Amino acid sequence: MSSIKNSAPARQTSRKLALTAVVVDIALVLIFVLIGRRNHDEGFTIAGTLTTWWPFLAGLAIGWLVSRGWRKPLGLVVPGIVIWLATVAVGMLLRLASNQGAQPSFIIVATAVLGAFLLGWRALAILLVRRRREG
C-alpha cells in the first residue's frame, strides 16, 4: 500500500514536467514565428501570427504524439530530436499545402533556429537537474 501512496507524487511531478515541457515548446515555436515575422517586416497581427504559427504548432503536436514526449519530456534524442524534426517537416509541408511557401533558405533557417530552441532548452534543463542532484 505504501508504494501506491509514494507513486502518486511521482506521477504528479511527471505530469507537471510534461506539461511544462509542452508549454515551453509552444512558447519557443511562437517566439520563432514572432522573430521571423518581425525580421521580414510582416509586423504583429493576431491573424498573421496565427497563420504563420499553426503549421509549426501542428508539427509540434505530431512530434509530441509520435515520440510520446510525456514519458521523458527532457530527453534530447527522444523526444527532443523527434519533436524538432516533426515540427520542421510537418510545419513546412503544411505551409506548402496552405500556399504559405517554404523557400530553401527558410527551411534551413527554421531547422537551425527550431533545433537550437527545442533542443537547447532541454540541454540546459538536463544540466540544471544534474547540478541539483550533485549539489
UniProtKB/TrEMBL annotation:
Protein name (database record): DUF3054 domain-containing protein
Keyword Transferase in record: no
Residue intervals passing through the bilayer: 17-37, 43-66, 73-94, 106-129
InterPro entries, alphabetized: DUF3054
Swiss-Prot/TrEMBL keywords: Membrane, Transmembrane, Transmembrane helix
Keyword Membrane attached: yes
Species this protein is from: Saxibacter everestensis
